[in-house]
Design brief:
By secondary structure, the chain is an alpha/beta fold. It folds into 3 domains: 3-89 and 295-304, Four Helix Bundle (Hemerythrin (Met), subunit A) (Up-down Bundle), CATH 1.20.120.140; 101-283, Rossmann fold (3-Layer(aba) Sandwich); 310-435, Orthogonal Bundle (434 Repressor (Amino-terminal Domain)), CATH 1.10.260. The chain is 55% helix and 9% strand. It has helices at residues 3-17, 24-40, 45-61, 70-85, 113-124, 142-150, 166-179, 197-210, 227-237, 254-262, 285-293, 298-307, 310-320, 326-339, 357-375, 379-383, 390-400, 404-424, 428-435; strands at residues 101-106, 130-134, 157-158, 184-188, 214-220, 240-246, 268-272, 280-282. The protein has an 8-stranded mixed β-sheet with strand order 3-2-4-1-5-6-7-8, sandwiched between helices. The longest helix is centred in the last third of the chain and has 21 residues, at 404-424. It starts with a helix and ends with a helix.
Length: 437
Amino acid sequence: MLENLSERLQNALKFITRQAYISEKEIAEYLREIQRALITGDVDVKLVSQLTEEIRKELKEAGEEYGVSLKDRVVYSTYQGLIRILGGEKKGLLIESNELNIFVFMGIQGSGKTTTVGKVANYLKKNRRVGVIAGDVFRPGAADQLKQLLENTGIPLYTDPSKKSSVEVIQEGIKWARNLNLEVVLVDTAGRHRTEETLMDEMKQIIDAVNPTATILVVDAMIGQQARVQAEAFHRVAKVGYVIVTKLDGSAKGGGALSAVASVGAPIIFIGVGEGIEELEEFDPIKFTSRLLGRPDLESIVAKVQQMSKEERRRMQKIAHGKFTIEEFIQQLESVKKIGSLQALLPSLPGGKKLDKKELEEVFTRLKKWKAIVNSMNMEEREDVTIIDSSRVRRIARGSGASEKEVRELIKQYVAAKKAIKKFSKGTLRNIAHLRP
C-alpha cells in the first residue's frame, strides 16, 4: 500500500539519521527529499510546503530543548506532521444507542461506493443489527450487485424495482428497517458527478427527506488530490460526515487523496484495500503514518520526546544558558539520569570533555551526597554560592555529613559547569547535545 511513497519517505529518514553530523545544510536536503516524496505521491504542493515549513520551525525551536537528539526530533516532527495532514487522531463511525442510525452513502460513478456499502455492512454486523437499502434506481444492476455482495452474510437488503424515485425507495426502506428493529441502516445511492445538477439536486432531496444520522462520502484513491474538489462539491449539497477512501491498494496517488480529504475536515474512517468484502480497514492516521515511515523504533522515539514535561524543558533551557542555581544543577543531573539525556551536560563539566562510562557512574554515585550538601545550604546560599566562605563550608559539611573538601568540590564543579555552558550556549553545546549521533 503506497509502496512508492513509503519508500521515498523512508529513504529521506535514512539519509538524515545516518549523518555523523547534522547541520542546517543536511536538514534542508532532508526537507527537500520529503517534499519530493509527497509531491510525487500527489499531495497538494501547498500542503507539502506548509508541512515542511512546520517541521523546519519545530526543529529550530527544539534547538533550545536539550535531552532529545536532533535525529529523534527530526523523526518525531516528521511523524507528527504527517499525522496532522492525514486527519490527526483516529475517529470511528459514531453510532447512537436506542435509535435507528441512518447513513447515506454518496460518491461519483466508479468510486466503488456500492461495494463499500456491502463492506461496511459486513464490518458492522459483528456488533450491530444492520441492514442495507438499495437506493440507486438509475444504474441497472445496482441492487443485484448488493444482493451478490451480501449473499451468505445474513444481512437484510431492501429493494423495490417498481419505484422510479430514489427518495420513495429510501423512505419505504427506512420504514422497513424500523419494523425489523435494526440499529443501523446503510443507504446506497446513485453515483453522480459534481457537475450533474439534476443528480446533485436529487441528493439534496434525499437528505432533506431522510434526515440521516450522517452522510458518508466514498472517494476513489486514484483521483489523488482532486478528492478535495469532490469532497467540497458534495459538502455543499449535503454535509459530509465521514469519508471512506477506496482502491488504496492499487493507487500511487493514495497519499494525495487521503491528505486532500482530511484537509476539508471530514474524518476518514475506513480505507478499501481490495475487492473482497473483508478487505476494509479502519483508518488510523497514527498507525498509517508509522507504516509509511517504516520505523520499528518510532513508538520509543515518540515516548522519549513526549516524556519531557514542560517543567523539565524550562529547567533545561535555563541550564542551556548557564542561568541555574546549584539546586537546579543537581535536579538536572537527576533528571538527565532518568531520561537518558546526559549528553547535554557531559561537556559542561571541568575540562569540557565527555565522561566515559566509569566516570559517569562515579558522577551518579556522588549525586546522593551532592544532594545532601545542597539540602544543608540555606536559600541564600543556593541562589548565590559566591557568598559561601570557610565558616559556611564547615557548617554545610557538618549538616550534610560530607567533608569540607567534598563541599568545595561540588561548588567548583557547579561554577565550572556554568562557565562552560555559557560558552557553549552560542552553538557548541547545541552541536554536542543535539547533532552528534
